[in-house]
């Protein structure tokens, strides 16, 4: 089987706001790996996406969680329940958050922010905190260190890309020259940017991780927020960042 890197699309509503995210599916002769899995409650939507490629959630062999955020790992526990054999992977720094041994960073941030909100903002904040509290922890089977090499799709290297969170990781598919960015890079109006800079644990570090991506000059970037980005296509359109 020829290796394939497929950018999926899942859209869910939070209140009146629609959120679209892009988990990535890595397929080769023996591996069926998902990178991030979407929000709590989105397993049926994920199932629909996988069905387009002739797969079921039970056939996924691995799940890489780039970091703990609810929109990246919200469906992980549900996926594990219907597919107990799936191997869940994350960085050592994110593992205590994903497994529930530490209070999630986002929940701590949201609760602290609540002290300074009022009116409708406070109501939205309360709903957001409640949603974060409902995210189920899940056991991490495999911890991925920086520069770990995996045989997925002909060769895949783990990259530490901190800033958005302390233990954020991304993947570089060397043979295909494709980067799976997680939240270390997002697309805003088609242009690479730091994802949700106001919520970055370390904004300076987040900027450095984004620049490291751009310095790779990869053929394609799969961004969880925004979809795919091709520097060559952007340059032809006059939109390539410096």
Keywords:
single chain, 8 helices, Metallo-beta-lactamase, Chain A, 242 residues
Structure commentary:
It is built from eight helices and 16 strands. The chain has one domain: Ribonuclease Z/Hydroxyacylglutathione hydrolase-like (Metallo-beta-lactamase, Chain A), CATH 3.60.15.10. The model has no long low-confidence stretch (mean pLDDT 90). With 242 residues, the chain is α/β, with parallel strands linked by helices. Strands 1-4-5-6-7-8 form a six-stranded mixed beta sheet, with no helix packed on it. Helix 5 (105-114) runs antiparallel to helix 6 (119-134).
Give the domain tally. 1
Query: What is the chain-wise order of helices and strands?
Result: EEEEEHEHHEHHHEEEEEEEHEEH
Strand order of the largest sheet: 1-4-5-6-7-8
State the secondary-structure class: alpha/beta
Q: What kind of sheet is the major sheet?
A: 6 strands, mixed
Secondary structure layout:
Blueprint: E1 4-7, E2 10-14, E3 17-21, E4 24-27, E5 32-35, H1 43-51, E6 62-64, H2 70-73, H3 76-82, E7 87-90, H4 95-98, H5 105-114, H6 119-134, E8 142-143, E9 149-150, E10 156-160, E11 169-173, E12 178-182, E13 186-188, E14 191-193, H7 203-216, E15 220-223, E16 227-229, H8 231-236
Parallel strand pairs: 5-6, 6-7, 7-8, 12-15
Antiparallel strand pairs: 1-4, 2-3, 4-5, 9-10, 10-11, 11-12, 13-14, 15-16
Helix pairs in contact: 5-6
């Amino acid at each position: 089987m020829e290796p394939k890197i497929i950018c999926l699309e899942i859209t869910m509503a939070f209140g009146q706001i629609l959120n679209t995210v892009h988990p990535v599916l890595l397929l080769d002769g023996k591996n069926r790996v998902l990178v991030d899995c979407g929000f709590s409650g989105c397993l049926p939507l994920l199932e629909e996406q996988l069905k387009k490629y002739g797969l079921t959630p039970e056939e996924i062999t691995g799940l890489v969680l780039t970091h703990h955020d609810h929109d990246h790992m919200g469906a992980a526990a549900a996926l594990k329940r219907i597919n107990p054999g799936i191997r869940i992977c994350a960085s050592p720094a994110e593992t205590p958050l994903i497994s529930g041994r530490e209070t999630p960073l986002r929940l701590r941030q949201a609760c602290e922010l609540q002290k300074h909100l009022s009116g409708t903002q406070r109501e939205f904040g309360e709903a957001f905190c409640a949603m974060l509290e409902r995210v189920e922890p899940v056991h991490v089977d495999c911890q991925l260190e920086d520069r770990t090499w995996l045989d997925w799709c002909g060769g895949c290297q783990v990259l530490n890309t901190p800033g958005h969170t302390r233990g954020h990781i991304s993947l570089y598919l060397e043979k295909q020259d494709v980067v799976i960015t997680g939240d270390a890079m997002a697309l805003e109006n088609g242009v690479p940017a730091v994802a949700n800079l106001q919520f970055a644990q370390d904004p300076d570090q987040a900027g450095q991780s984004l620049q490291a991506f751009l310095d790779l000059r990869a053929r394609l970037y799969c961004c969880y927020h925004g979809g795919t980005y091709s520097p060559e296509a952007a340059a032809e359109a006059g939109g390539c960042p410096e």
